[in-house]
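U., I forgot to send this yesterday:
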Amino acid sequence: MKRSFVRIGFAALAVLLSSSWEACADVRMPAIFGDHMVLQRDIKIPVWGWADAGEDVKVAFGDKSAKTKADANGRWRVDLEKTAAKSAPQVLTVAGKNTIKFEDVLVGDVWICSGQSNMAMPVGSCINAEAEVKVADLPQLRHFKVRNTMLPAPASDVNGNWEVASPATVSGWTAVGFFFGRDLQKHLNIPIGLINTSWGGTRVEAWISREVLAILPGTEGDLKQLGGMGESFNKQQEEFKNNTESFLVEYRKLEALETDEAHLKKYSDPALDDSSWKEIDTPANWESLGHPGLDGEVWYRRTVDIPAAWAGKDLMLELGPIDEIDTSYFNGEKVGGMGTIKPLETRFWNMPRHYTVPGKLVKEGKAVVAMRIVDQMGQGGPWGGEAKNMFLAPAGAKDDPQSRISMAGKWRHYVAFELPVKPGDPSNPNTASVLYNGMINGLIPYGIKGGIWYQGESNAGNAYEYRVRFPAMINDWRARWKQGDFPFFWVQLANFMKPPENPENTSWPVVRESQNKTLALPNTGTALAIDIGDAKDIHPKNKQEVGRRLALAAEKVAYGESLVYAGPTYKSMAVEGGAVRIRFDNVGGGLESKGGELKQFAIAGEDKNFVWAKAKIDGDSVVVQADAVKAPVAVRYAWANNPESCSLYNKEGLPGNPFRTDDWPVVTQPSEK
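Result:
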């Protein structure tokens, strides 16, 4: 989760080094209002902002309008009358002493998309990403990315901007949110807005307000950390600012290089003599190859022999993921690039680069491929992918390994600009409440339909407490938005890590159980990922199915449709001699086993010693037994970090929900005093 700490330094700098908005008398709007936004249908539409105290403000949208005066603190708010979904673009106008117009505004359903890295993971990192991006011309789907920001007290605004779904934009969007929103938009035929406020590696406590954490048991340590941050934050940030000023002088030199044509031409020119440049292996990050701690600009160059048969043909240049920012050249001509240093845009750091070399540039003989790579924190360079996925090939034959020139292996490289060591920001994104303060509070009370959530991995250490803290967060957000019990759906933790040889008592199934307990809240639902994870990757790449399952939950719970959205869910158990009969809800068209016999069922007697059991489907129930357990009292299913072979489904193709019938102590459960 490399990017967990990247953007905060520059977000903090933006706040620290800029003048405050109060100095400006013009009407000002929160960042969540912008061109291309989606407003929530069928509710009164909150519109708010700031102006001079007592200033008259008028808001108009279509045939709706409202007037108000800014209060003594310069704050104002109106609530426009309800409006139905509108796919035709409209203009929202806000007028005071100045006038602000927001263009291309739609009305539909707006969804908060939050959590940690599996929500933040971009479309460009998913399976079949290239194909998905190519068909992403979806003007009725919009996305707002909240910039990563942590604060010791609630902020009244966020940083970010709205984008329209297109092949040029969606690669960096939240993948779970995109596939969820895409399915809903197609199903409902209305505009869908996604507000992506997520941060990798974060715990649920960071997303809960201080006031709510204060009434939860066991949060004293979290609150003490936040209190300490508050007491020393101003001093620490002042030191951070002072230490940063000299760094910024050099950083702005790096920014300037991005548009310095002479500089770019010098290092991309195929005639440049690079024989003195040292060789470096790819794919690999440069920190591991002799450049520890290097941040800045590094050029990579490689000469290839173009066959005569390729002359005049479009080529595909596949370079794998590049961390963080690149501009790539073929014989001195730019053929692609992702990310920018000004404004800072690093969300593509783990996304494969797929660039087309136009046929007019392709000639028989020697050709020079050059990459300008900029990294401003953490590991840098062309790394994170496989060597086989770095190649040059004719566009029509790129899937034929025999028609490729490998681009993995040795390149020549040169460090063109090295940044000094960046001052460390004293903040921690897992400090209690700091992400609620910096990334949620400033969105309220923007009109929304509901929320989706993918998080929990970082709470494995207090998995049992999660059953209290996670629903507390949902209730906290609902209370502050004041839109009632708005629909809220989450992704249950995917299977991950080495599959168990024997029944185990580990933390991830406890997180899943805590997530299931949260279903007691009204208007909630869960999307299982227990069958689509990856033992070796905490970020499974099949986000399409995750989004589809979340959309099913929304269609059932939020939109009241009659459908089966969940897999078999534990209902009851009955001991029948030496066996146990398990009955289920959400059976749908019936139970079935995928891939052969049912697996991942375990059974225990009074000794609490679980062993693998035989299980078979009997109508709408499953009968479980094991020869080693003559008097069973408890059954568990898929109770493991990675129950890889779990095979219980309903005929709608939805996996069975992990469960246990016992209430015996589990890992992370506090001992009884």
